[in-house]
Amino acid sequence: MAQEEVEEEIWNPKTELGRKVANGEITRIDEALHADEKIMEPEIVDHLVNLDEEVMLIGGTPGKGGGKRRTVSKRTARMHKSGARYRTKAMSVLGDRNGTIGLGNGEANDTRAAIENAAREAKLNLVSVDRGCGSWECACGTEHSVPFEVEGKSGSVTVTLKPAPKGIGLAASDDMAKMLELAGYQDVWVQSRGKTRTRENLIRAGFNALKKINEMKRTEDK
Length: 222
Fold this sequence. Notes:
6 helices
């Protein structure tokens, strides 16, 4: 009986950053995120860090007795001459629970492919976020909360992240709590305003707030 050969997919880097990772010149995800070149290949992330994934519940179907049951995908339709053409959208958050977080959107003909596309985009949209103890009530000096108050916007939704003392936990909606947990935060006050039922905008606003943490810190350091 002939032995079956299993072909392994070999990554052939196409960017300078990818070649540095493949050659072992860059061995940590924070080095890649702070490099001059943007991450353009998801394989770079796969080689450097193990990420946990949360698929956000952005869709809904009618539930029993009224109301809606939240789902991981959202179905959209476009009208063509031949009739309606349906697509499925998904949103994924990836994080290492240690200061690295990414958000991605995916679209495809089916839910599984949409989630895979969302995860791929999230890997190309990774950012590093600082943690600290910005609460005057705590001042413990450990990295358990956001270092200062920060605000993010998307559409009509505004999300404000406020430092919280140790032991408060993540005072946020389920979606925001999942994102903050994947980023490595333990205690944060979250305030949201606007049409927060639009969950995609709520999640994007929260992610934009996280991105602002390091942007504001770099401005302060200059």
